[in-house]
Every structure is written in C-alpha cells, then in structure tokens.
Amino acid sequence: MKYKTLFRLALKFLGVWLAVQGILGLVVSLGVAVVATLQLKRGQWDFYIAQIFETFLQGAWPSVIYIAAGAYLFFRGEWVVDLAIPSNRRYCHECGYQLAEPVGAACPECGVRLEGVGQSTSVDEGGDG
Ligand SMILES: [Zn+2]
Predict the structure, then answer these.
(1) How far does the centroid of ligand 1 lie from the alpha carbon of residue 108, in Å?
(2) Which structural domain range is residue 58 located in?
(3) Residues 29-50: what's their mean pLDDT?
(4) 120 Cα: distance to centroid of ligand 1 (angstroms)
(5) Separation of 98 CA from ligand 1 center, angstroms?
(6) Among 55, 67, 76, 90, which has the minimal tally of Cβ within 10 Å of its Cβ?
C-alpha cells in the first residue's frame, strides 16, 4: 500500500471521527434545547423560546462545522492529500512503476499502454501533430 493511499484512508477516518463528534455535539445541544423547552411554563414560552433557540445555535454551530469538515475530508480529501503529499509523479497502472518525465505512450517497465494515468497532472498533448 502506498503512503498516499494510507494517508487518504487516515483522512477518511479523521473525517468520520469529526462527523461523529459533530453529530454527538448536535444531539447534546438539541437535547438540552428540548429539555429546556419542555420545562417552560405556558406564559414563559414567548420570552424564553428565543433564548433557548439562541443557546442551541451557539452550541450547535461548532458541531455543524465539525460535520462539514468531516464530510469534506471524507468525500473530497483529495485536495488535502495532494497538498500534504505533492507527488505528481505518475505510476504505471499495471505494474506500479514510477514513470519518469516525460511520460511516453508505454510503461518502460512492463510495456503496457498508458492511458488515463495520473489525472492530477496536466499533460500537454499538443495535438496529434
Ligand atoms: Zn508498467
């Protein structure tokens, strides 16, 4: 397993962990708000419901950020991975050989035709000449 794959997996785990923290935080905030609302007497409702809602929002927005960050890391962590490990070297999809620049049409190691390898690098095709 390559380091980048390992890092990608670690990011996904971090994303899940963050999202779980956020969800737990949301549940706690929601629970506190519900309990506070249930304890209101009829005449207090109009005055306190705004305060309860405000308190809920103050407690909830960090959780929302946790969930958003977690979802981002889980689904779109590729940018972070590329930032942390900027290896734009292309690998042969067949044998895993690290290709030297410029990359030819075939892998020098196993001779397989190279197509659609390394989407992250911008390859100048320059037309068909
Ligand atoms: Zn190869």
Answers:
(1) 7
(2) 3-84
(3) 87
(4) 19
(5) 8
(6) 76
